[in-house]
Amino acid sequence: MANPIFKAVYSHPELKTADLEAIQAAHEPFGFSKGEVFLKAGQTANNYFLIETGLLRSFAHDFDGNEITTGFTGANEIMIEVASLFQRKPSVENFIALTDGVAWKIEFEDFQKLYHDIPAFNEWGRAWMSHQLFVAKQRNIDMLTKSATVRYVNLLKDKPQIVLEAPLKHIATYLGVTNTSLSRIRKEIAT
Amino acid sequence: MANPIFKAVYSHPELKTADLEAIQAAHEPFGFSKGEVFLKAGQTANNYFLIETGLLRSFAHDFDGNEITTGFTGANEIMIEVASLFQRKPSVENFIALTDGVAWKIEFEDFQKLYHDIPAFNEWGRAWMSHQLFVAKQRNIDMLTKSATVRYVNLLKDKPQIVLEAPLKHIATYLGVTNTSLSRIRKEIAT
DNA sequence: TAAGGCACTTGCCATAGGACAAGTTCTGGC
DNA sequence: GCCAGAACTTGTCCTATGGCAAGTGCCTTA
């Protein structure tokens, strides 16, 4: 028992080994293939996923109907549409696999049970979500204050897996540049 | 009893009148003056505030040391540094009053008690935070896909109080433009 | 193995918004 | 009421990035 991904994801000082085992028991592992859809816009999320290996992309549509990549989820990360799952409303984001991989799935009801039964798990959830909020706000600042080149270089440094495995056009919309520009940035970086 | 701000802020279908009264009892009202500091970067938040009247600004510093306005908090909204309060770490944001006003304050410990004693309050908190996350992500998309003029017009439409009461330079950094440009945008709009 | 079609690159020009600097107006003490 | 400094406007010029269109290379499928 005790797959290391659970220790990596559910990391909170007050979560004991027994808790982690109960948590793991509520998850179910499965393999997935490139192109597989995890959640479609318009559906209400009833579960979330831990990604053990592989890479997922999430995207929404802007007012003109263009796909905007909102994020990537890689190994040891949680793939979740928080707003849909916790407010029980249709998702505006889509989640799709960019590669084959392995993930663990947990149903909302099972999550709720853990959430109410294990206080440390509840605290973990709040801390995790507050961290996500922090990251989202930081991303906002970066978008407003850093040049496209700097944003790309930072992504390369912080999440090389994405740059290696995701196609250019998705990285471009994620960074808020056209793929033309990103192509030029790559060329320039490669000096 | 039952100040309407509590009904407005703590809005959740399962929060009953008795709950709201217990919640209100844990808050303390106070008046504040323009320029008053609610939380300074580097401090760890030990409380949060409901703003009954008035307007607050939050800001952080970018890598060059420039002030970047990260948000405004107006009437019937919560002023909180989520990451600092729930992860017990120093804030990177500052919160300061742009106007005089009235607010209610609650200490973290009192909040924790409500959070553990009232399940509906706990659910409310999770839904509230997931909504904040949703808003932050939406803001990201807007920043990447909308022109400065459109961003300003939307702000004007969605939160006129800010445009009326906050100085131009703060609105400018919030929207990610220079104050020179915002001044020109305003002129152009006024056609 | 040919054909169509993505994904990406490259060139050329256009434009939103930035940088800087010189006003002008507003505002809060005194 | 007066003054200093802040807040805002405006002019001129500049740069990063977008828009469009024409490649090039690669991968899939028949």
Provide an overview of this structure.
The first copy, chain A, is of the alpha+beta class and about 190 residues long. Chain A has 2 domains: about 5-125, Jelly Rolls, CATH 2.60.120; about 145-190. Chain A is about 50% helix and about 20% strand. Chain A is built from 9 helices and 8 strands. The first copy, chain A, has helices at about 5-10, 15-25, 80-85, 110-115, 120-145, 150-160, 160-165, 170-175, 180-190; strands spanning about 30, 35-40, 45-55, 55-60, 65-75, 75-80, 95, 100-105. Chain A has a 4-stranded antiparallel β-sheet with strand order 1-8-3-6. In chain A, strands 2-7-4-5 form a 4-stranded antiparallel β-sheet. In chain A, strand 4 and strand 5 (about 65-75) form a beta hairpin. In chain A, helix 4 (about 110-115) crosses helix 5 and helix 8 packs across helix 9. The longest helix of chain A is centred in the last third of the chain and has 27 residues, at about 120-145. The N and C termini of chain A lie far apart (about 50 Å). Chain A binds a DNA duplex (30 and 30 nucleotides) through helix 9.
Please render the helix and strand layout as text.
The structure is a homodimer of 191-residue chains.
Chain A: H1 4-9, H2 17-25, E1 28-32, E2 37-39, E3 47-53, E4 56-61, E5 67-73, E6 77-79, H3 82-87, E7 94-97, E8 101-107, H4 108-117, H5 119-145, H6 148-158, H7 160-165, H8 168-175, H9 179-189
Antiparallel strand pairs in A: 1-8, 2-7, 3-6, 3-8, 4-5, 4-7
Chain A binds a DNA duplex (30 and 30 nucleotides) through helix 9.
